[in-house]
Amino acid sequence: MAKQIILITGGQRSGKSSYAQKLALSLSTHPVYLATSRVWDDEHRKRIERHKTERGCEWTNIEEEKELSLHDLSGRVVLLDCVTLWATNFFFDMQADVQSSLQALKTEFDKLIGQDARFIIVTNEIGMGEMSQNDVQRKFADLQGWLNQYIAERADKVYMMVSGIPLMVK
């Protein structure tokens, strides 16, 4: 298998995850689902469990909040869902320090993609709307935008989801 990075971006509920899952299953009978979300509360825990059940037994589920490269993913098709939640974990742990968070994320991303795997990466375009009046939200939007650019530059393909339709960007 040739190493490949496919980035899928778009707005909330644009169909990113559904498209990414279909793509992963078209490339492998047993893909890896690399989930980055923290469990924030009981409702969120139930939601995560429901998502795992809905995905089915063909998936290898790995939950990892920050250190994605600790997992040996060589030779696998890996769906990383999602960059936004992954970045949130660094951002909150680093007290909303954008530059430190961005550097840590870039370093960890580079370690991750050093593995010989096919990566399908889901992220959000959160900076396409109105600029937030909240300072922390503006900082996070900057972090997310810069991280998306970093990943897109390294990606072999980039898709933008619009109303469930993938548009090839790169």
Automatic annotation (TrEMBL):
<feature type="binding site">
    <location>
        <begin position="35"/>
        <end position="37"/>
    </location>
    <ligand>
        <name>GTP</name>
    </ligand>
</feature>
<keyword id="KW-0342">GTP-binding</keyword>
<keyword id="KW-0169">Cobalamin biosynthesis</keyword>
<dbReference type="InterPro" id="IPR027417">
    <property type="entry name" value="P-loop_NTPase"/>
</dbReference>
<comment type="similarity">
    <text>Belongs to the CobU/CobP family.</text>
</comment>
<feature type="binding site">
    <location>
        <begin position="10"/>
        <end position="17"/>
    </location>
    <ligand>
        <name>GTP</name>
    </ligand>
</feature>
<feature type="binding site">
    <location>
        <position position="81"/>
    </location>
    <ligand>
        <name>GTP</name>
    </ligand>
</feature>
<keyword id="KW-0808">Transferase</keyword>
<dbReference type="Pfam" id="PF02283">
    <property type="entry name" value="CobU"/>
</dbReference>
<dbReference type="InterPro" id="IPR003203">
    <property type="entry name" value="CobU/CobP"/>
</dbReference>
<dbReference type="GO" id="GO:0005525">
    <property type="term" value="F:GTP binding"/>
</dbReference>
<keyword id="KW-0547">Nucleotide-binding</keyword>
<dbReference type="GO" id="GO:0005524">
    <property type="term" value="F:ATP binding"/>
</dbReference>
<comment type="function">
    <text>Catalyzes ATP-dependent phosphorylation of adenosylcobinamide and addition of GMP to adenosylcobinamide phosphate.</text>
</comment>
<keyword id="KW-0067">ATP-binding</keyword>
<comment type="pathway">
    <text>Cofactor biosynthesis; adenosylcobalamin biosynthesis; adenosylcobalamin from cob(II)yrinate a,c-diamide: step 5/7.</text>
</comment>
<keyword id="KW-0418">Kinase</keyword>
<feature type="binding site">
    <location>
        <position position="63"/>
    </location>
    <ligand>
        <name>GTP</name>
    </ligand>
</feature>
<dbReference type="GO" id="GO:0009236">
    <property type="term" value="P:cobalamin biosynthetic process"/>
</dbReference>
<protein>
    <recommendedName>
        <fullName>Adenosylcobinamide kinase</fullName>
        <ecNumber>2.7.1.156</ecNumber>
        <ecNumber>2.7.7.62</ecNumber>
    </recommendedName>
</protein>
<feature type="binding site">
    <location>
        <begin position="52"/>
        <end position="55"/>
    </location>
    <ligand>
        <name>GTP</name>
    </ligand>
</feature>
<dbReference type="GO" id="GO:0043752">
    <property type="term" value="F:adenosylcobinamide kinase activity"/>
</dbReference>
<dbReference type="GO" id="GO:0008820">
    <property type="term" value="F:cobinamide phosphate guanylyltransferase activity"/>
</dbReference>
<comment type="pathway">
    <text>Cofactor biosynthesis; adenosylcobalamin biosynthesis; adenosylcobalamin from cob(II)yrinate a,c-diamide: step 6/7.</text>
</comment>
<feature type="active site" description="GMP-histidine intermediate">
    <location>
        <position position="51"/>
    </location>
</feature>
